[in-house]
From TrEMBL:
Taxonomy, superkingdom: Bacteria
Domain Glycoside hydrolase family 38 central, chain residue ranges per copy: 272-349
Keywords recorded for this protein, A-Z: Glycosidase, Hydrolase, Metal-binding
UniProt similarity note: Belongs to the glycosyl hydrolase 38 family.
Protein name: Alpha-mannosidase
Organism from which the protein derives: Paenibacillus agricola
Length: 851
């Protein structure tokens, strides 16, 4: 790039509006109205002034509470002087929401703008979000936006060759992107015109136009009269044609026309405020729960509508998604708002979760009630045999197990009653184990039953439970054993260290090798006194000061299906309880955690050293994955992180045969095998990897909204008290692509759902499969009613980074089609109600055919 004295500075009049931060949403609501009024006043006072504003949620608030002002805004949008950017519901955190949440931001945000103003945003706009995941270009393109504007990470946090660049994602999508070189607000360091003149100089040096933002921000405000008077002086002095009142839309349109030579970047935009990946555990856990629950509710509401005519609850589900999206605002999802704000967050998540629960229950109940479970011997319903179930004689009582995922799931499910036996719908017996219930109801009623289910994709299956009748099941090949501090099945043997409770060994019986390079599940206490709430200026949290210890180990469950050891350890006043379970199905180790955290200015991490050489770390990001350096830096992730590498080559390997230990030489020239281990979770978003050791960030306890403020005795600390979550260790042969990690992580987060039933006739069978996807690397994440009410939407994405041919069937609609997925490609299919019409590919907004 060469100097160009004909370049321009585009002055962007904006008001950065945090609806929640150091204030609650009600104050943000009022500030948005006042700021919009101020912007309209400026438009009346200054004929050349142009105002830019994002976030559909803000416009919705004004529409519902100040309709006259909304009409005025509409006129200015039509005029072209009020410019809508950022076609999302809010300016979200751009690391922690799921891929489908980003799709919904585009769907609901852009459709709102189209409905109310007849336009959609072409520029993605996130000037204050704390980082931007690597799949953003594809998500932006699918949301109808070809350009992106952001500020963080700033130059000291990520080196970019140029502030204007082409940004590519893994699938090949590309958006023209601009990083602000200075704040979105009025901050200046060297005089009233220094910021604008600096950008004028940068434009000349780089050979292309620059954007320069102005306007009071954070608590709204926007451009002031003084701003615009000063700008008029600067333009008069330095050239009105070189310094123009503009918008991001105009800037990018000019850059497309000018077509300057700019670099191409294929990377994530990180890393700012690394503490925000883990601050405020509750809101992060509820975000994950709500995302999955709403998707499950949509799927079974769709099937209940198609098969039985249950009205599809579109309005209720849309409201729930609006709550979830609002809570993904970066200062909420990042955990850096005031304590009172998180009371509101809890209410918004609660409403979304309740809506999800009600709609999901209505759909499952509608379907289960329509399944033909009648038996010839039954004349009428009666509870003569049992007060809890409707079983008559020894005919069995039906339960319906639903699977919201797009592949068949085999899993352990707990039935809330002690049973003698269980069969599937064909009468084949299912292995059963008695386990402790959560209740203590009298002397005997404190037991539940554990069974293994195999449930079809987007479907359900009926199982028959028997209170007294014994039906012997075949012996299990992979029966689990527990002995003192050891868990063992056909795949692995796990040993715990007695006095610490750490995992001392995970021995892979398939390869006769140890999988850990040291002790695992080690609770490490980190000092973070030097950190503010955001973790500003930090790259790592690795100042270890202690470890939980003084462990007590108990056998919690002992059975052929699953055995569990409870490890309870302590540090100061904090108590960590890990229920470490090994099932018969695989070598995966599932750990249910209850933590009572009482520390301040400290962090807890769980460490897992993986025994591999030349380690590589890959983790899930929204609708994709990314490989990152194993340098110990704190990074964001979604439901899984993996470390894989070469199996260590040693002079001798310990080999076990028939219970005896012997040594076996390994040929020097033998090809080293690859293996790895993944860490899956259902509530956490932060970790680091140093070498081959994964450390998952469990909790941190900074002060609420502390930006290196004055700390006194009245400050309040975050995440005090009890929280619960689950993680799974998943060993695998080969690299991460051989581990079925996307499937397993979703199985942890979206377990099968159980519904008790009784005897009745019905039109539905006892086994129902809702979807068939032929390629394992392609998963269907969403199945919902089309927004226009004229068909159905199925969204899929390719998970392994490889071009894939796939056949997809929806048996209930008698529809099937084939598609080719590129590497990490997201595809949305519209299946019209009119079966004479072809299935079409659409983008997230469900409007435009993808070419």
């Amino acid at each position: 790039m060469t100097g160009n004295e004909n370049t321009k500075v585009h002055l962007i009049g904006n008001a950065h509006l945090d609806p929640v931060w150091l204030w609650q949403w009600q104050e943000g609501y009022a500030e948005i109205k006042a700021t919009f009024r101020s912007a309209l006043d400026r438009l009346n006072e200054f004929p050349e002034f142009v105002f830019t504003c994002a976030c559909a949620a803000y416009y919705q608030w004004v529409e519902e509470n100040a309709p006259e002002m909304f009409a005025e805004i509409h006129d200015r949008v039509t005029e072209g002087r009020w410019v809508i950017t950022g076609g999302w519901w809010i300016q979200p955190d751009c690391n922690l929401p799921s891929g489908e949440s980003f799709a919904r931001h585009g769907l609901y945000g852009q459709r709102y703008f189209l409905e109310k103003f007849g336009i959609m945003a072409s520029v993605g706009y996130n000037v204050d979000s704390f980082g931007h995941h690597g799949m953003m270009p594809q998500i932006l393109k699918q949301s109808g936006m070809d350009y992106y504007l952001f500020m963080r990470p700033e130059a000291h946090e990520k080196n970019l060759e140029n502030d204007l660049f082409w940004w590519d994602s893994e699938d090949g999508s590309r958006v023209m992107t601009f990083r602000l070189s200075d704040s979105y607000a009025n901050f200046t360091k060297h005089g009233k015109d220094a910021k604008i003149l600096k950008h004028k100089q940068l434009a000349e040096e780089k050979g292309h136009d620059y954007m320069s933002f102005y306007g009071v921000g954070n608590h709204g405000g926007g451009p002031t009269v003084a701003n615009l008077q000063l700008i008029d002086e600067i333009r008069e002095e330095h050239g009105r044609d070189r310094i123009i009142l503009s918008s991001p839309n105009q800037f990018f349109a000019d850059m497309v026309e000018a077509n300057p030579t700019i670099p191409v970047v294929k990377d994530e935009m990180q890393r700012h405020a690394v503490g925000c990946y883990s601050a405020h555990s509750e809101s992060k856990a509820n975000n994950r729960r709500a995302e999955h629950r709403l998707l499950s509710a949509e799927k079974f509401s769709s099937f209940a509508h198609m098969t039985l005519g249950l009205p599809y609850p579109k309005a209720a589900l849309n409201l729930a998604w609006e709550n979830v999206m609002f809570n993904q605002f970066h200062d909420i999802m990042g955990g850096c708002s005031i304590k009172e704000a998180f009371d509101d967050v809890r209410e918004f998540h609660g409403e979304a979760l309740a809506i999800g629960a009600r709609t999901l229950n209505a759909a499952m109940q509608k379907m289960s009630w329509a399944i033909d479970t009648m038996k010839p011997e039954v004349k009428s319903l009666s509870k003569d045999k049992d007060w809890q179930t409707w079983e008559q004689d020894d005919l069995g009582a039906p339960i319906v197990v639903f699977n919201p995922l797009s592949w068949e799931v085999e899993a352990l499910v707990k039935v809330n009653k002690k049973l003698k036996s269980v069969t599937d719908e064909t009468g084949a017996p299912v292995a059963i184990q008695t386990v402790r219930a959560s209740r203590t109801n009298g002397k005997e009623d404190k037991w539940d039953s554990l069974i293994t289910v195999r449930v079809p994709a987007f479907g359900y299956r009926v199982y028959w439970t028997y209170r007294d009748k014994e039906i012997a099941a075949e012996a299990l090949a992979g029966e689990v054993r527990v002995d003192g501090n050891t868990l063992e099945n056909a795949f692995v043997r796990v040993e715990l260290e007695a006095h610490t409770g750490y995992i001392q060994s995970i021995f892979d019986k398939q390869t006769n090798s140890e999988l850990l390079n040291g002790k695992g599940a080690v609770p490490i206490v980190i000092d973070e006194f030097h950190s503010d709430t955001w973790g500003h200026g930090l790259k790592q949290y690795r100042d270890e000061i202690a470890r939980f210890s003084d462990a007590r180990i108990q056998v919690l469950e002992e059975g052929s299906l699953r055995s569990t050891l409870r490890v309870t350890s302590r540090y100061n006043g904090s108590v960590l309880r890990q229920d470490i379970s090994l099932g018969h199905l695989s070598g995966d180790l599932q750990v249910r955690v209850q933590l009572d955290w009482r520390e301040k200015h400290k962090m807890l991490k769980l460490a897992f050293p993986i025994r591999v050489e030349q380690p590589e770390s890959v983790s899930e990001i929204p609708y994709g994955y990314i490989e990152r350096a194993t340098d110990g830096n704190e990074v964001p992730g979604q439901q899984w992180v993996d470390v894989s590498g070469k199996v260590p080559r040693e002079a001798e390997e310990i080999k076990e045969a028939d219970g005896a230990v012997e040594a076996s030489g390994v040929a020097d020239d033998a090809e080293q095998q690859v293996r790895g281990m993944a860490l899956l979770n259902d509530a956490k978003y932060a970790y680091d990897v140093l070498g081959s050791e994964i450390r998952m960030t469990v909790v941190r306890s900074p002060i609420f909204a502390d930006h290196f403020g004055e700390r006194d005795e009245q400050v309040e600390f975050m995440d005090q008290g009890v929280q619960e979550f689950t993680y799974t260790l998943t060993p695998h042969a080969g690299d991460w692509k051989q581990g079925r990690l996307v499937q397993k992580a979703n199985e942890l987060n979206v377990p099968p759902l159980l519904m008790w039933e009784t005897y009745h006739e019905g039109q539905l069978p006892q086994y129902f499969q809702g979807i068939e996807v032929s390629a394992e690397s392609v998963v269907a994440t969403a199945f919902k009613r089309a927004e226009d009410g004229d068909g159905w939407i199925v969204r899929c994405y390719e998970t392994l980074g490889q071009e894939t041919e796939v056949a997809i069937k929806l048996p209930v609609l008698k529809r099937e089609w084939k598609a080719t997925f590129g590497k990490c490609e997201i595809k949305t299919f519209w299946i019209p109600d009119d079966s004479s019409l072809d299935i079409a590919e659409v983008n997230f907004i469900e409007l435009h055919q993808v070419v």
